[in-house]
Amino acid sequence: MQRLHPLQTNPEFSILRSASFHEYRVENWHLARDGSGSVVRNASSWSWSYSLLPVIISVLWPKAGSLHRIILTLAVILFLWTRCTQVIHESVIVLPEHGIQLETHRGFPPLTFSISRRFVPHTMLRDVVINEGIKRWDIRYYLVALNEGTTGIALDVCFPNILPHFPVLIQIYRDLRHLIAVQVPPLQSP
Amino acid sequence: MIADFFYPDVGGVENHIYMLSANLIRRGHKVIVITHSRPPDCVGIRWLSPALKVYYLPFVPIASGATLPNFFTFLPYLRTILLREHIHLIHAHASLSSLGHEGILHSHLMGVRTVFTDHSLFGFEDAASILTNKLLAGTLRNVDAVICVSHTGRENTVLRGELFEQSDDDPHKLVVSSNVYVIPNALVAERFRPGPPKSTDIITIVVLSRLVYRKGIDLLVATAPRICAAFQNVRFLIGGDGPKLIDLLQMREKHLLQDRIELLGSVPHNDVRSVLNRGSIFVNTSLTESFGIAILEAACAGLYAVSTRVGGVPEILPEDMISFAEPNEDDLFRAISKAISIVSAGEHDPLQAHERIKTFYDWAQITERTERVYDTVIKSEQRDLWQRILRTMRLGRFAGPIYTIILIVDCLFFLFLEWWMPREDIDFVTLIGMIALSLSLQVGC
């Protein structure tokens, strides 16, 4: 298993190569772009402010009525849920001769609690495209796999949560296009 | 280019923006268009040939393609787009386009210069006009250049937008600002070639316009039966759609002219030439017209033009290629009768008319003139914030302070956006990205 970091400006992007597959992984942090080079983490690990939570709960709980206690419990559960479903990393795994798989690993950094996967077989994968889209107030480049199923063309966005910037996407795009061109085209029934 | 009116809607303004953008790209500039989305197909970012990127932003239109006047909701999108595309200058079109107005109000925050083009004439008396004129005056107070499509349009815009200042020599005299230009519209003459010569046994009069009040359909409804009664060999061919279609249908029923007047309904832009080639005379009955590109297209296709003498129409063609009428029924009847007699006598040569008009209006010339305006704007100095505030305060007793408050809140919102979405984190557009996308993506909508 070989791990490469092809881009110096984007060390969160790595390629893992093995005999049977290779994976393009983008982790959920990036270098600060203002030139200082410090690490900006979008998925936060344990921080000292989390220990304030039991203190606040222990102060409020005895004095709270039952309705307030229910609200407090729900607030704590919501807090724990958001902390434990942060995106750790997302990847595009290429399985030669089978297809590509889009994965999102969520959890509490550095532990992974859940992985959601979407597999696109080579027969269905029509093309890979980079386009720009509007996300709230921002405009981002995104990489999308076009699947041609029986019901028309569906779009699967790669890295939907992290949305890396263009230099990362163009690397993955070139490799994926190369792979798609090399694959034997699917047999079309007349 | 910023406008509410763009592809896939069809119309004069839309076509003008597209042709100007295409010609500017041909001359080596980078052009993008920002407009509002038309769900479900025209959303997000699309490409049109040749290498024209169109941003379809999520704003809801309220009436005939125009969005509600806002002052702040466009700023986040505009800031991201202008910074990521490395834009130097924005060109806003149409007074009714609130996206264009907002673009002019926000661009100075990013050091981007502004140009505004006005395509229509507006009145001064009714309530809607008073409000829109005040909004226009507020926007044009700090714009870098204004382009109008005719000299009449220039007069109209200068008066509505208060584009005059006290002259330096004599404080009691008012002088028009030096940054108001007149650059007419143009047409692609090859697309409007005359058809083969027709016999003068049956003379067909073509009318192609939106069937709304301001295009003078009532005049047409009054005049058409009189013409049909006076000349037995005349047919009418009316294309276009709108609320006044009912009036035309009723008139046709009342005078039993079903075989003399043909109603085509909405005509797609590609079919306009074939419709024009079926006729010998083109009639335009507008009550107000800033330029009249339809008349020009018809004259280019070899038809003899008859029009009401309103707005900028007398400026577009030489006197011997068009007949004018006052906007009343009797004069229009006289003018059309004269046109019929000229065409029946064979005194009008369609091919010669086409050859002449080919030399009058050309997109390359118009683009070059527009480029010169851009050049002047970029070389001039941008006003700083204090100058802007002073100029805005002079708008009026109430409008001045209101617009100044809007300007200051705009600056504060911009500062907030600089903190919330820092410039370094914007996904910038690179040359490689642009070339790769424009070639590989064939996504229209």
Taking Cα atoms only, what radius of gyration of chain B do you get, to the nearest Å?
24 Å
The total count of helices of chain A amounts to 3
Give the CA-based shape of chain A.
elongated
Can you count the beta strands of chain A?
A: 11
Q: How many structural units, i.e. domains of chain B?
A: 2
CATH-defined fold name of the largest domain in chain B: Rossmann fold
Q: Report the CATH C-level class of the largest domain in chain B.
A: Alpha Beta
Domain Phosphatidylinositol N-acetylglucosaminyltransferase subunit H conserved (chain A): 91-160
Family (chain A): Belongs to the PIGH family.
InterPro entries (chain A): PIG-H, PIGH-H_dom
GO biological process, one term (chain A): GPI anchor biosynthetic process
What does this structure look like?
The complex is a heterodimer of chains A (190) and B (445). Chain A is built from 3 helices and 11 strands. Chain A has 190 residues and is of the alpha+beta class. Chain A has a single domain (2-41, 86-180), classed as PH-domain like. The relative contact order of chain B is 0.12. In chain B, strand 6 (89-93), helix 3 (98-107) and strand 7 form a beta-alpha-beta unit. Chain B starts with 11 loop residues before the first helix and ends in a 5-residue tail after the last helix. Chain B is α/β, with parallel strands linked by helices. Chain B is built from 15 helices and 17 strands. In chain B, strands 14-13-12-15-16-17 form a 6-stranded parallel β-sheet, with helices on both faces.
